[in-house]
Fold these 2 entries.
Entry 1:
Amino acid sequence: MKIAVTYENGNIFQHFGHTEQFKVYDIADGKVAEAKVISTEGSGHGALAILLSDLNIDTLICGGIGAGAQNALAEAGISLYGGVTGSADDAVNALLAGNLAYNPNVRCSHHDHHGEGHQCGEHKHGCQGNA
């Protein structure tokens, strides 16, 4: 099993489409066998799903994520645990222990009602998985 987490400074980055790094965890016997940080090399939104698929990722943990990216992940067969905050390592350990708190209805809702050109955090709704 391989898990990817949107990553910034040890924590889960809160906007999937703008993440510059993933921390990728190789899981063996229910534990982290290896972990490494990889660059997205400027890929965004839908291209990130392709990147994750090419890395043979089974599962993604992230903060906010738009519907288009969710669809791309589903098409790639990648399980999504969104609306997660805090430490990337803690989230992976919680997932492995079966007690990760996540939002199954997560979405970065500003994609639905704001114009182009804004960055996550510039609006009051944020990308925390709250619709």
Entry 2:
Amino acid sequence: MATEFAKLNGLGNDFVFIDNLDGATALSDDQVRALCDRHFGIGADGVILVDASPREECAAYMHYINADGTLAEMCGNGVRCFAKYLVDRGIVDPRSGSFVADTLAGPKSISFEVDAQGALTEATVDMGAPILDPALVPIDAQPNAATDDGTPCVRDLPLESPWGTFSFTAVSMGNPHAVCFVDDFAALPDELFCDPAAKSLRTFDVDRVGAFFESHPAFPEKANIEFAEVRDGGISMRVFERGCGETLACGTGTCATQVAAALTGRAPRRGTVSLLGGDLRIDWDEGGTVLMTGPAAESFRGTVEL
């Protein structure tokens, strides 16, 4: 069956979109994997079905599926692309400036900016409050710290690997994240770098180490794994996404990293996080919610046989 699709991306984190407002499309795991295959399919980090929402206040429901066919609770870059898909097609009035999107992690309020043609250029998503209680992240570990308001959390927890000890701060943004701040790349084994003579976050083997910790016993539902460094107050980050592998950007991972940096005293609650695909602005406001701001773009449209 020939099915229309659109390819969108948020800082290079890319998705195949299919309009399913009529509820006529149901994808198997094999079909999702085929669509996301970068050699034999369209190529993407995941598939997003634009479904009708049962919630009256929501414009539509974002049904996000990872490239391996597993369902994901939330995707920060995906929800900004979701906003662009709805605004650019008039499903959401471009003049409104805001709407509510439905997701598996609950409704998300989104404000947006458009260009002279009414196409969305940038969106700010209220990602809600980070979940820090280890039982809810989830991470199989006892709290070893607490926030200013007394919320228990797991901060800089050491976990062993074949390459030594890495320490993680656990944060959920509707999906589980484990953030590792690497203070000294030079101290890590040569085998973890594509260029051992120039050890850095950019030459670090994220796929290898990320895959190991994604499925670590400490994470009962697996986890998205972030490796980050802070220099002069600025954060740089790379991410191994659960069920996908390394991606050029991760919205929820960026939020989790800013939260983890604040929790560990490495950076303030507001800042810009630099990823391989570009920058996102994150604000963990005093009310406790996390606001994520960044661009979304459409690459192309087409039809595909399902």
